[in-house]
Amino acid sequence: MSVESTETNPLRALSPQDLRAHAAEALTRARERSVALTSVDDEDLVRQHSKLMSPLVWDLAHIGSQEELWLVRDVGGREALRPDIDDIYDAFQHARADRPALPLLGPEEARKYVREVREKSFDILETVPLQGRRLTEDAFAFGMITQHEQQHDETMLATHQLRKGDPVLHAPAPPSSRSGPLPAEVFVPGGAFTMGTSAEPWALDNERPAHEVAVEAFFIDTAPVTCGAYAEFLDSGGYEDPRWWSERGWAYRSEHGIDAPRFWKREQDGWWRTRFGVYEKVPAAEPVVHVSFHEAEAYAAWAGRRLPTEPEWEKAARFDPATGRSRRFPWGDEEPTPDHANLGQRHLRPAEVGAYPAGVSPLGVHQLIGDVWEWTSSGFEAYPGFAAFPYKEYSEVFFGGDYRILRGGSFGTDAAAIRGTFRNWDHPIRRQIFSGFRCARDARPSEVA
Length: 449
Ligand SMILES: [Fe+2]
Prior knowledge:
paralog of FGE (formylglycine-generating enzyme); binds fe (ii) ion
């Protein structure tokens, strides 16, 4: 039996009309979010809130520019709207720190531009054949552009977190724990499982193809590491003890004066943090967020553990021992609902450990999707049989670079931009992103039945 044959493609059941409606709905949801994130004063839109980020107005017009390139010009074969701005919004041409100095479209111009591009995209979506060409099969290009917009929305959310001043974003609190006390760790049996996908219609090139990977038996934390557990590492002097840090991690921590997760501050009564303009006590039961790979790795060493590899993470998330099959998501093949996972910026924070019992994996692992991106110990490499699509700059140029893989998405990731197979990669020093982690350890021979 080939590894692909147990995979399902949920869009194949749709009529062409329903497929178009599905793509239109995904694009619309992304745009509503982009509009919400850019509905701030013009001054806030054009300002660079941190050297790490672009001005919000750059992200907005860049979203339109990518949509114009792929949907209007390529898929639609239409004439260019604004060929004069292609270069300004090419992320490869200009580093984030340099973007404010570019002759960017102003707030009104940028809003008008993305509206005009979107009107054309919808027009094209109604008429373009959704078969016969790989780029439009299963409406892939529309899914790719939806994911691109949602990814920039998450980036803009991170810019909001770096913004100084009174809160401008508001959302209800996430659910509290709905589980009893959870076991600390879960056993994952050794052996082969199917990693990656060949059938997921909107999966990106780096998630393909499905292939068999064998892992040794191991244990993984039932839930992401909490702020409370992380504070114990801090309070026991973990940031001052080079024993727990890699050489590179120690150098990074020393050079940059890193002494706690980003946005944390020590007060007389414990740790506090700033979250989207709100100063609050760090909640002990919530997964820790805004830590770099180096910090995650140091914590794991202090705890006598290690970070999971990328295949280990995916096996814990997708493998169903009852069927031997890999699921699309930990809970099954159905799309995420608000009951499964903390996604889509519905809440402006991770949820307490135990808040999503409906999202648990077959092996009993919680909150793999949503809440916080989880650092793994793996670099970004091509799967065997990888083929760049639709362009090399999507993934291929990043393979083998100085990156670590993050998995699972955060509270700021939309459901359209996450799957059990989705791979994110970033530099090991990065921590303005919504990054946390969970630990793992090898199984001892006596623990493997
Ligand atoms: Fe982009």
